Amino acid sequence: MVNKTLSQLLRTTSHTSFELVYYFNLLFPLDLLPLPDMDGLSKVQFMTKLHEKAHVYMVKKGEWYAKLDNKGKKGRVLEKGNVLWVHLRKERFPTLRKYKLLPRLGGWGRD
Predict the structure, then answer these.
(1) What is the superkingdom listed in this entry's lineage (predicted)?
(2) 80-to-83, 84, 85 alpha-carbon distances in Å
(3) By CB distance 3.0 to 4.6 Å, which of 19, 42, 54, 81 could disulfide with 13?
(4) Is there a domain that residue 85 lies in?
(5) Residue 75 is assigned to a structural domain of this protein
């Protein structure tokens, strides 16, 4: 039984992981038998082209995801001297947090 990831296309590269490493798609387990030796230079050229193609596809996919994530958002440019409102939550400062069951000044149950 062939591993499911070998036959599944990777979303970010549009190639199978096996194809990115071994320059061809694995169809059957018998395909792993020793292959006739190809010219080393042509194999290297093919692999570099394949990796460049996968890299271009990954960059394109990343830009598409960024565009999808930033949809409807305004691009803001902050400059030195701008006034910002920063909301810091109590959970970020546990020493300053007041727990529900801490004793109060007037005793239990008194304000």
Answers:
(1) Eukaryota
(2) 9, 11, 15
(3) 54
(4) no
(5) no
**Is residue 60 in some structural domain?**
yes
For 57, counting Cβ atoms within 10 Å of its Cβ (0-12 exposed, 13-18 middle, 19+ buried), the class is: middle
Range of the domain at 8: 4-69
Total domains present in the chain: 1
Instruction: Annotate the chain with DSSP letters as a single string.
Output: ---HHHHSPPTTTSS-HHHHHHSS---SGGGGSPPPPPPHHHHHHHHHHHHHHHHHHHHHHHHHHHHHHTTTPPP----TT--------GGG-TTT---TTS--TT-TT--
Residue 36 lies in a domain: yes
Each of the 111 residues of the chain gets a pLDDT tens digit; together they read 445 554 455 566 677 776 777 666 666 665 555 555 667 777 788 878 888 988 999 999 999 999 999 898 888 888 999 998 888 876 666 665 566 666 555 555 555
